[in-house]
Amino acid sequence: MIIPCKSCHSIFRLDSKLLKSTGSKVGCSKCGEIFKVYPPRVNRRRYKRVKTCNLISFLSFDKTGKLISNGLGVALDVSQGGILLETPYSIETGLIVLATTDRENHLFKVKGKLLHSTETSNGLYHSGIKFIDIDWKVKAFIKKLIKEYNCQGYNLFIAIAKKSNKPKLSSLPNKIRNAC
Fold this sequence. Notes:
Blueprint: E1 2-4, E2 11-13, E3 24-27, E4 34-37, E5 50-61, E6 67-78, E7 82-87, E8 95-101, E9 107-119, E10 125-131, H1 136-151, H2 156-163, H3 174-177
Antiparallel strand pairs: 1-2, 3-4, 5-6, 5-8, 6-7, 7-10, 8-9, 9-10
């Protein structure tokens, strides 16, 4: 890795394998300045994310199995490890069950755990959900989401509007129209 001196801005080459995760003190050979250098930030994502824009229904359960909340959201992206769901309100913590159907009306369900639910600037919520019990069913779920997204012309609501005069895209609520 290449690092600049904090004082004289001289450039040096340094093997990042020599650095501690908490940072290591190094000295500039030109000006003698001692400063701390950190290893390059590693991408914490384990799996590649794929952008989607699919409607997903969800159910949220507490530890006892009692239903806390349910609703519809838009899957913004998906990976083998999880999904980012946009909803009009915050999802309650607990076990999450996600469900969607394909064009042949086959139902796909997958379990997940809520990692975070944060409010965005437009008043919607983004909820990161980690898949639980990852197996071939989860992989099939992800493939179906991506396939449906690609088959719908990248926007479900535009595809609906193209198929009939009702509903027109302009007649859909702003939150839904702007979701994708």
